[in-house]
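Design request, tokens follow.
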């Protein structure tokens, strides 16, 4: 293009280039560069309670920067011994050691190296003075009632903010109202004083919270004199009224002060809060109003405080400037003051100069624009010096920009732009680094990356290059640049691969090349499987009050399992890790359990999985089932005598479809308030035509039903009353109650109140003999029973019952056949015979009686029998009748459970509903012998290594003549195999025991014993026992342990031992020892013993054992409860239980339990043998 670009086009191009390049480049510290300040202090206040005060300045650069400071635009010496300088930075500390006021001022930090100098903004170090009110004598003030007055505060200067309070000496606040006001400066104004304002302790307090200080002005005394313009006879009210009338006056402004005139100017910074105050004296107390001249007060940001005396506008903007007027008025006049509000602003950046990296020969531009009120002045500096001292040929410098072309290495510098007005100064550093280097890749070589299938992968290749460089990526094994829509190359060198697949795994090379050379690094990419979740059950429906259990099943790549974390949320709100404090909601990793589910628990539950590389979520919709809400808005229409239409609106079904509606009614005149079911309709219906009964004042309600249950009933409908009518039905279930002969007590089910159809319900009863050509007999009753006398016993009658009321009769009644009352049968059956089936069962046959002799409905026959005599011993028995009934018309019966070998008497009789008839003649029969019951007991009373003696008892019932016993036995050692069964026939019935021999030693046997008669043997009784091993006295204890004298002796020894123990404890508690060391110790000389007790007290030598320690051995010996003479006889027992003088020496028995002999028989118990 041959034409020259315009100046504006050139500037725009330069701006775009500089911004684009500066945002893309961050110079590594390995490359030479000018200093950059990275940390600096702002305002620092030297609070008296701090240990030290730190003023910070840190910078980076290559070469490493050095630091210097200025204070109040003069060089500041960092070598001052009163400060502490930090290494490798410009930061220094000022210890709080009493000389800090010397350091108050405005500081600026300079960081420099051979390439340039960076400078900080000004930092102010403030050393506040301790504020104090001056010591002064304040003259008392005296005014007349109704006059105005101002109590000055004049607070001392100090570190803001300042809070002022007026209080009395008791630290009670002075009450402020429309008449009394404290200004922003702290003075207390009275529009007109009253007598109650008199006090001698008006105190002004100034609080400086940042200094943690409150100071107090000396108390002021104010005396208000009351006016006395009325005579003494006037009342106080009249006096006050007259006095006030003298002092009444129109308003006069005290704030702003009268010296300022009727208008004043107020300057406020943008964003601050504007406070305008206006206070007038006068009587009556003036009211203050505010308005903005030529506009409205800003809505939402303005408030009137202190009874309207203060106008407050927050967050002031330029549109709030203008004139504001306050007007103070009472009925005597008004006073005004206009405030001219000026809104100004400190400087702020609109375009801040940006640092940039340039290559030799390139062009650049620095922009510096700011706004403020007044308009800020802009000054440029280079390396901290005015730019006029460092001009570069070809550079274009203006207040708002610096442009340069054909940049050379000596352009490298730090440019400063400073914008200032009366409200402050702002400073910005812009680095200009002219660099020409081969690309430097800052990302490490062979960096490993991983992502999940379907996600994006980011492979980094951060670099620095000047001049500009070109970046290209390629897969190592393919050796050609990557192309395609899935690959995106970011300006910082990062490669983004979208929608990754497993084929994307591998090694990639990043190449960066510029005019100075090229560099490369390799990146490795691994592809992981995506995390998958499934929540079960899917969309569950849980009844209210039940328990909801959700499980989150996760499937995760093995490399990501270490970082897998599961969490639960409901409707987007996360649950606490452990659920709720009350334990209703419990979260255990993949499981979520909610007990006692409520309707509020329904919603969308989400299980989220987070790993180091991906995240996913699975959701399930939980529906909480509950009974429906009651139907609403019941409405009656189409009203008829016998019907009405009921319509309603369905309530909330709570996630379970309504299956049906139950319509209930109330209208029972006898039971008002009782609701009964009328009908049911399908859940899709919300209207039904109801069939009604006459003479009922109906009210309806509806209940909704779903799978959970029934809703509460709806609100009742309006009433609907049907007119009366004749009965629609007659009584049902007509029957005869049990009655006397030739009598019928007729009963029926009465009509229900809803079936009566009208008032005056009665029942018309008619009857006649069945089939007889006679007139019906008739009787009308109001209850539901009637007694009728008949001419015959148990004769059939046709009976009818019809309902009638005042409006007519019910339908024609149907006849039922009823029988008159029964009488007892008057004939007895004849027994044909008794056939003996076995020893306990017989069959009886008899002849039936004629039906005319039954006198009623035959229900059956009854057999009575009783035992009269035992055929075994001839014993007779008193008569105890047993009864067995056989229903229906039959002539035989089986009589069970008889005693064998006995004589019985038996009779038969007929019975009907009235009762039983006469008995037949007794029939005598005998039962034959049977097998006996099992013996009452079986015991093994003695065992040895190869013998066992058994004893038994007779059966309770012999059931015949006993002929003997059958004894059987077999080996049953603790295995699943059992030995051969051996039989022994005992033919002596009177023998109660038997000794078995030739048994195996140390073997367990099972014994069976049966009693026998001529009919056979009965059921067996069993017992188990073991034979003994080798031993001289193996069977000895069996003979002894079963003897009564031996048991008694053991009991006596146990009792005697217990008595001796009691005596020992009594003596020990009295202070002595009871030992059994030697015989003479048991009978000591009383005098010697007394000396011992007094000298040694509780001493016991090593040979003695106190009773407490002997208790264990005593108890062990007590188990072997042997007597001296019994064990001496056998030579094995410890016969030394007592010494010859009768003292107990069991404490030295020293015996050991060698073993014990056990028996599994029911008659033996373990007995320890001691050697």
């Amino acid at each position: 293009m041959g034409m020259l670009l315009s100046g504006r086009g050139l500037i725009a191009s330069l701006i775009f280039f500089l911004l684009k390049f500066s945002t893309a480049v961050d110079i590594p510290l390995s490359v030479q560069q000018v200093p950059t300040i990275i940390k600096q202090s702002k305002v620092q206040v030297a609070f008296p309670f701090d240990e030290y005060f730190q003023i910070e300045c840190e910078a980076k650069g290559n070469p490493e920067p050095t630091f210097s400071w200025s204070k109040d635009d003069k060089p500041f010496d960092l070598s001052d011994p009163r400060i502490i300088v930090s290494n490798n930075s410009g930061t220094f500390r000022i210890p709080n050691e009493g000389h800090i006021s010397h350091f108050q001022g405005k500081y600026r930090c300079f960081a420099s190296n051979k390439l340039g100098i960076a400078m900080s903004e000004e930092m102010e170090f403030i050393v506040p003075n301790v504020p104090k009110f001056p010591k002064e004598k304040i003259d008392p003030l005296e005014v007349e009632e109704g006059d105005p007055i101002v109590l000055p505060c004049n607070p001392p200067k100090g570190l803001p903010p300042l809070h002022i309070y007026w209080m009395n000496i008791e630290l009670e606040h002075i009450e402020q109202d429309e008449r009394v006001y404290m200004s922003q400066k702290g003075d207390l104004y009275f529009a007109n004083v009253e007598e109650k304002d008199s006090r001698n302790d008006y105190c002004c307090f100034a609080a400086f919270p940042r200094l943690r200080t409150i100071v107090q002005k000396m108390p002021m005394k104010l005396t208000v004199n009351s006016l006395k313009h009325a005579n003494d006879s006037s009342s106080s009210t009249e006096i006050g009224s007259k006095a006030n009338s003298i002092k009444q006056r129109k308003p006069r402004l005290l704030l702003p002060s009268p010296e300022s005139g009727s208008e004043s100017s107020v300057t406020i910074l943008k964003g601050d809060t504007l406070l305008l105050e206006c206070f007038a004296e006068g009587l009556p107390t003036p009211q203050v109003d505010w308005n903005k001249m030529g506009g409205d007060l800003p809505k939402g940001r303005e408030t009137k405080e202190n009874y309207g005396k203060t106008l407050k506008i927050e967050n002031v903007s330029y549109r709030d400037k203008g004139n504001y007027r306050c007007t103070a008025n009472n009925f005597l006049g008004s006073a005004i003051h206009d405030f001219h509000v000026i809104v100004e602003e400190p400087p702020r950046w609109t375009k801040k100069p940006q640092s940039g990296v340039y290559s030799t020969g390139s062009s650049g531009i620095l922009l510096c624009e700011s706004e403020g009120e007044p308009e800020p002045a802009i000054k440029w500096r280079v390396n901290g010096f005015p730019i006029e001292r460092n001009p570069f040929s070809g550079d274009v410098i203006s207040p708002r920009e610096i442009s340069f072309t054909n940049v050379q290495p000596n352009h490298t510098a730090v440019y400063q732009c400073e914008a200032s007005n009366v409200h402050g100064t702002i400073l910005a550093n812009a680095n200009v680094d002219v660099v020409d280097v081969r690309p430097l890749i800052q990302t490490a070589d062979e960096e490993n990356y991983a992502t999940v299938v379907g996600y994006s992968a980011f492979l980094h290749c951060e670099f620095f290059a000047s001049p500009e460089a070109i970046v290209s990526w390629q897969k190592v094994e393919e050796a050609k640049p990557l192309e395609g829509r899935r690959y995106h190359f970011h300006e910082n060198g990062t490669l983004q691969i979208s929608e990754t697949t497993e084929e994307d795994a591998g090694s990639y090379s990043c190449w960066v090349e510029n005019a100075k050379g090229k560099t490369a690094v390799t990146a490795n990419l691994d592809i992981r499987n995506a995390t998958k979740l499934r929540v079960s059950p899917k969309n569950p429906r849980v009844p209210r009050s039940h328990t909801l259990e959700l499980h989150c099943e996760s499937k995760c790549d093995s490399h990501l399992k270490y970082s897998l974390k599961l969490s639960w949320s409901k409707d987007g709100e996360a649950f606490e890790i452990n659920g709720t404090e009350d334990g209703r909601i419990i979260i255990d990793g993949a499981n979520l359990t909610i007990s006692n589910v409520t309707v509020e628990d329904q919603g969308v539950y989400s299980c989220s999985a987070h790993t180091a590389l991906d995240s996913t979520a699975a959701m399930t919709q939980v529906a909480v089932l509950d009974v429906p809400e009651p139907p609403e808005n019941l409405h009656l229409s189409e009203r008829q005598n016998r019907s009405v239409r009921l319509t309603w609106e369905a309530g909330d079904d709570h996630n379970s479809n309504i299956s049906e509606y139950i319509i209930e009614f109330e209208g029972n005149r006898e039971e008002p308030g009782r609701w009964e079911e009328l009908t049911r309709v399908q859940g899709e219906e919300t209207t039904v035509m109801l069939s009604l009964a006459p003479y009922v004042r109906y009210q309806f309600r509806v209940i909704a039903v779903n799978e959970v249950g029934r809703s509460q009933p709806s609100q009742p409908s309006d009433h609907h009353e049907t007119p009366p009518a004749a009965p629609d039905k007659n009584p049902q279930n007509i029957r005869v109650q049990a009655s006397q002969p030739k009598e019928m007590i007729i009963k029926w089910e009465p009509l229900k109140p809803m079936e009566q159809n009208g008032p005056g319900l009665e029942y018309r009863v008619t009857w006649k003999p069945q089939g007889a050509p006679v007139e019906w007999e008739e009787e009308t009753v109001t209850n539901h029973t009637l007694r009728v006398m008949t001419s015959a016993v148990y004769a059939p009658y046709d009976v009818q019952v019809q309902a009638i009321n005042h409006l007519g009769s019910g339908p024609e009644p149907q006849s039922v056949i009823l029988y008159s009352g029964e009488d007892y049968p008057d004939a007895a059956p004849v027994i044909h015979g008794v056939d003996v089936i076995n020893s306990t069962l017989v069959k009886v046959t008899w002849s039936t009686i004629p039906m005319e002799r039954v006198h009623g409905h035959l229900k059956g026959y009854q057999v009575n029998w009783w035992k009269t005599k035992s055929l075994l011993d001839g014993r007779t028995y008193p008569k105890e009748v047993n009864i067995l009934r056989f229903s229906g018309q039959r002539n035989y019966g089986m009589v069970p459970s008889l005693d064998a070998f006995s004589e019985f008497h038996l009779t038969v009789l007929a019975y009907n509903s009235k009762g039983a008839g006469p008995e037949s003649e007794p029939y005598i029969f005998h039962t034959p012998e049977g097998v006996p019951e099992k013996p009452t007991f079986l015991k093994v009373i003695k065992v040895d290594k190869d013998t066992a003696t058994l004893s038994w008892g007779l059966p309770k019932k012999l059931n015949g003549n006993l002929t003997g016993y059958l004894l059987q036995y077999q080996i049953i050692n603790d295995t699943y195999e059992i030995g051969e069964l051996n039989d022994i026939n005992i033919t002596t019935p009177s023998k109660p025991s038997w000794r078995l021999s030739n048994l195996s030693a140390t073997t367990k046997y099972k014994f069976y014993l049966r009693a026998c008669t001529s009919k056979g043997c009965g059921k067996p009784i069993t017992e188990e026992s073991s034979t003994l091993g080798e031993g001289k006295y193996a069977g000895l204890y069996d003979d002894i342990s079963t003897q009564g004298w031996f048991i008694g002796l053991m009991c006596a020894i146990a009792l005697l031992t217990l008595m001796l123990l009691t005596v020992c404890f009594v003596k020990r508690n009295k202070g002595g020892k009871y030992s059994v060391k030697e015989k003479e110790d048991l009978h000591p000389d009383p005098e010697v013993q007394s000396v011992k007790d007094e000298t040694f007290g509780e001493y016991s030598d090593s040979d003695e054992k106190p009773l407490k320690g002997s208790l264990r051995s005593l108890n062990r010996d007590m188990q072997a409860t042997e007597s001296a003479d019994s064990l001496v006889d056998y030579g094995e027992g410890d016969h030394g239980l007592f010494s010859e003088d009768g003292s107990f020496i069991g404490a030295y028995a020293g015996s050991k339990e060698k073993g014990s002999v056990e028996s599994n028989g029911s008659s033996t118990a373990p007995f320890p043998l001691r050697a």
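Comment from the thread starter after seeing the answer: thanks! The chain has seven helices and 87 strands.
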